[in-house]
Amino acid sequence: MAARYDAIGHTYATTRATDPRIAARIWAALGDARTVLNVGAGTGSYEPPDRDVTAVEPSAVMRAQRPPGAAPCVEGVAEALPFADDSFDAAMGSLTLHHWSDWRAGLRELRRVARDRVVLFTWDPTFRNAMWLGPEYMPVARETTAGFATIEEQAAELGATVEVVPVPWDCRDGFFSAFWRRPEAYLDPNVREGISVFHRIEDKAAVAAGLEHLRADLDSGAWRRRHADLLERDELDLGYRLLVTIN
What integer pLDDT is reported at residue 8 of this predicted model? Predict the structure, then answer.
């Protein structure tokens, strides 16, 4: 993960902001926890401002983009957290598990260091074809979800409850499915730079062809005709989930 984001994460903070609606769900799930460890913290999205937060992030490029006043951040990986057992009231992570080398070990570590609860914002890979971008324009993106743990596996490892987190149409956090009602965004290289899926796809020619196809469909109006129903939606379930474990 560190090597990947040291290479691709230079503009991450420009497109991957905290979405307030998703943040509200995460922060409510943290309950009354006062001390919180944010694992795979990146540039600091979703860190609650009213708690005592410590962040862990392996990438120096990502750590350097944390804003002034952000929580202290130490170098480390989820699979070997540099903290004693029960060091924090809660541990959290946001769209990070798929970057870990051993997701089961990482989840065990989150449980080990958290006295009260673990809150994980994650994704269900059975929704890999739920968003139009992959199936219609770059089916090679499916390769990037190979080996992604199922939501049932993730929940079982944590002993967690599972909550649906719909994606708002104007989501401020530019992850892969965030622009489901704003297709033009995927033509912006800065947007793509902040989405790891585009970097995981090995067939760059297929990505370029898919983007040209999308551009043509937007210019002709074909995309809007095909997805007119989406333009009436304010939010959409695209597989994003909140796992909550109370110890």
Answer: 54
Residues 245, 108: Cα–Cα separation, whole Å: 12
Between CA 133 and CA 61 the distance in angstroms is 28
Taking the C-alpha atoms of residue 49 and residue 63, their distance in angstroms, rounded to an integer, is: 18
Please give the backbone phi and psi of residue 164, each rounded to the nearest 5 degrees, phi first.
-75, 135
The fold of 2-246 is Rossmann fold (3.40.50)
- Residues of the chain short of pLDDT 70, as ranges, are 1-12
Nearest 5°: phi and psi at 9?
Answer: -95, 15
In degrees and rounded to multiples of 5, residue 63 shows phi and psi of: -60, -35
Q: pTM to 2 decimals? A: 0.93
Looking at residue 136, what DSSP letter applies? Answer: I
C-alpha 58/C-alpha 73 separation (Å) is 10
Q: Which of 29, 55, 60 is nearest to 44 (CA)?
A: 55
Tell me which DSSP letter residue 212 carries: H
First to last CA, the chain: 28
C-alpha 225/C-alpha 217 separation (Å) is: 10
The 3-state DSSP class for residue 27 equals helix
Name, in order, each residue with C-beta under 8 angstroms of 214's C-beta and a sequence gap of 6 or more.
133, 137, 183, 186, 187, 223
